[in-house]
């Protein structure tokens, strides 16, 4: 059926299915419960107006345009399509999913609870304006630009692609996560409580201004530029792994040694399992550190241990001192010739034996687990105590001298404080 045109007006419960027809055009207005399905039809145009509960699915189509306006609970799914444009206006609970589509443009305006997922698509542009609780996820996409303005509780996740640009304006409680994406640029303006995490990325630029309680974490990203303007309580962590070693020297069947050159320039070492081969049942790995001591020669110090239940650990080596060595299982190993070369040894031992050993005190990284647990219990106690006095509006007795606080505000404070503690347990110190 070439050149199909369908128009439906003021009709409840409409279902339309079109298969293998080029040049299809739909117009549905002021309808309840509309479902449209189009398969293998190039040049599709769909317009729906003032319709609650709309579902549209378009698959394997070229040049698709979909516009939905003033609608409640809209779901649009487009699969393996070229040049797709979706526009949704003044809608509640919108969900849009686009799969394997180059050159996608999506615009959502004045909508509550919007979720958009775009996967394996080059050149994607998404714009969301004046929306509450927006979540956008883009996967394996090249040249993605996302702009969100005047929105509450925004979460954006972009991973494994090139040249990502994200701009968020006047949005409280924003969380942005970008994974394995070179050339990332993120700009957030006038937003309280912003959290941004960028991992394994090249050439990252982040600019946050006039914001309260900003936390930025960047991992394994060379050439990082971060600018924060007029923002109290800012926490920025940029962590760059200079070297990752997986080629340990096997000394015996249960002992392995890594070489650490220029150890004087290293503050912390991370020992972790790759996840391919676990420890035998009831066994773990004791982690030792050895550096050359001019007075007594090679000194081994116990840092801690790793197990299948605790597959990674961070140890501080910059504060280790000579003379703190003790018994160790590595015997009289060859001492590295260079004076600036240290060694990290892993000895496979029983969990019972590991529990009896005491690491050097200076190797432990400061922990905030106990304080975090205390804060969690305090939050729960306050919320449970105040909730026990909760009354509905019909149960309240008028009292001009008494002030009442909405239970929703206590819950919002509880959730915000809990989230900030998870992002940065030391945020209260600033």
UniProtKB/TrEMBL annotation:
Keywords: Cytoplasm, Nucleus, Protein transport, Transport
One MF term in the entry's GO annotations: nuclear import signal receptor activity
Residues forming coiled coils: none
GO biological process, one term: cellular response to heat
Hikeshi-like N-terminal domain ranges (all copies): 243-361
A Pfam family reported for this protein in Swiss-Prot or TrEMBL: Hikeshi-like_C
Keyword rRNA processing on entry: no
Subcellular location: Cytoplasm; Cytoplasm, Cytosol; Nucleus
Domain (Hikeshi-like C-terminal) ranges: 369-429
InterPro entries membership: Hikeshi-like_C, Hikeshi-like_N, OPI10
Primary subcellular site in the record, as a coarse category: cytoplasm
Cited function: Acts as a specific nuclear import carrier for HSP70 proteins following heat-shock stress: acts by mediating the nucleoporin-dependent translocation of ATP-bound HSP70 proteins into the nucleus. HSP70 proteins import is required to protect cells from heat shock damages. Does not translocate ADP-bound HSP70 proteins into the nucleus.
Family membership noted in the UniProt record: Belongs to the OPI10 family.
Assembly description: Forms an asymmetric homodimer; required for binding and nuclear import of HSP70 proteins. Interacts with ATP-bound HSP70 proteins.
Protein name per the record: Protein Hikeshi
Organism the protein comes from: Cyprinus carpio carpio
